[in-house]
Amino acid sequence: MNFIEKIKERAKQRKMTIVLPESMDVRVMEAADKILKEDIANLIIIGSPEELEETTKGLDISKAVIIDPKTCSFTEEFIEKLVELRKNKGLTYEEAKKLLLEDYMYFACMLVKTGKADGVVSGACHSTANTLRPSLQIIKTKPGVMLVSAFFLMVVPDCEYGANGTFIFADAGLEQNPDPEKLAAIAASSAESFELLVEEKPIVAMISHSTKGSAKHPDVDKVVAATKIAQEKYPMYSIDGEFQVDAAIVPEVAKRKAPDSEIAGHANVLVFPDLDAGNNGYKLVQRLAKAEAYGPITQGIAAPVNDLSRGCSVDDIVGVVAITAVQAQNQ
Q1: Which CATH class name applies to 149-288?
Q2: Strand pairing partners for 154?
Q3: How confident is the model at residue 1 (pLDDT cuts 50, 70, 90)?
Q4: What pLDDT, in 10s, does the model give residues 217-251?
Q5: What is the spatial distance between Cα 242 and Cα 45, in angstroms, rounded to a whole number?
Q6: SS3 letters for 218-232?
Q7: Sign of the C-alpha dihedral, residues 105, 106, 107, 113?
Q8: Which tens digits make up the pLDDT trace of 7-34?
Q9: Under DSSP, is residue 55 helix (H, G, I), strand (E, B) or coil?
Q10: Of 153, 157, 117, nearest to 135 (Cα)?
Q11: What is the structure's pLDDT at 140?
């Protein structure tokens, strides 16, 4: 059984309710059909009858709960609650009403905030900002977490490295240029996510263009500082660096470049120095190694809200919904 099939089986054991606010996207509705047929999660789909008529032809979503914000019985309650949540920002009743009726992501986040749903998956036809802004405004960050970050869960076929070819790449979707403190926090969150989803021990490598002092540059200094912070603040996780990718995952290379590190050559969580490296790294592995790439999966929000790539396939959406359900089981 491959990684995503295991995740689906875990999701089925205690079904969670996941919101899909992008009823205007045919791929999302095709994914909903598959999710309901496979009994992976309970679904709430937000959309008008006109939108659903257009995107669900030939599909069966009859087991989903369909909500049209314009006619929903608790829309008024949501408007009042959103005004209360955003009163410090001066949000008016009319502004809140417009957001909830016209931006389905706001309505989805209110469903989670009020306990009517357990998580949200969006982003197939909206930007990361459109997906994450409402979640940070309404659901907010998890207590004790420094920042929200995003990772891709990579499953590389016929791969001897990582956890049988399974890795987390972070931050590959959200945090542009984290400082050492943030980079250390991303390392800890990613280790926790790996432990939850892969159910194996996370081995975290802090990635750089340098291995243990082989190059000198302020970019290297940042990763060195982040590694020290991570080791001091999160001693429960195995974290080391700075490493080039080959030294992080290939034992033979690690013996030459970092012989004194127990982590070098065995990493399954790769923490990249910035978003440019992480995002392009995951795309290279996805395309050249034909890897499965699930994400960007967010970590650090008080309830799971996950952002799809706009180039996602139907199976990608199904996989991310299953991952979101497993995250929700452990909130």
Answers
A1: alpha beta
A2: 167, 293
A3: low
A4: 999 999 999 999 999 999 999 999 899 999 999 99
A5: 44
A6: HHHHHHHHHHHHHHH
A7: positive
A8: 999 999 999 999 999 988 899 999 999 9
A9: helix
A10: 117
A11: 87
Following DSSP, what letter does each residue of 97-109 receive, concatenated?
HHHHHH-HHHHHH
Q: Which two tokens stand for residue 33?
A: 């059909």
* Residue 236 or residue 174, greater confidence: 236
Could you please state the CATH topology (level 3) that the domain comprising 3-140+302-329 is classified under.
Rossmann fold (3.40.50)
Tokens of 198: 């892969």
Output 114-117 pairs: Cβ under 8 A, ≥24 positions apart: 114/74, 114/77, 114/78, 114/81, 116/17, 116/44, 117/17, 117/18, 117/19, 117/44
Rounded Cα distance, 298 and 324, in Å: 9
Q: CATH 3.40.50.10950 in the chain, residues? A: 3-140+302-329
Beta strands (DSSP E) in the chain are 17-20, 42-46, 65-67, 119-122, 149-155, 166-170, 203-207, 238-243, 269-271, 292-299, 305-307
CATH 3.40.50.10750-classified regions of the chain: 149-288
Which residues fall within 8 angstroms of residue 95, CB to CB, at 6 or more apart?
A: none
Q: Which residues pair with 153 in a beta bridge?
A: 168, 294
Q: Which residues pair with 18 in a beta bridge?
A: 43, 119
Residue-wise pLDDT tens digits, 95-139: 999 999 988 999 999 999 999 999 999 988 887 778 888 998 899
* Nearest Cα to Cα of residue 291 among 151, 154, 150: 154
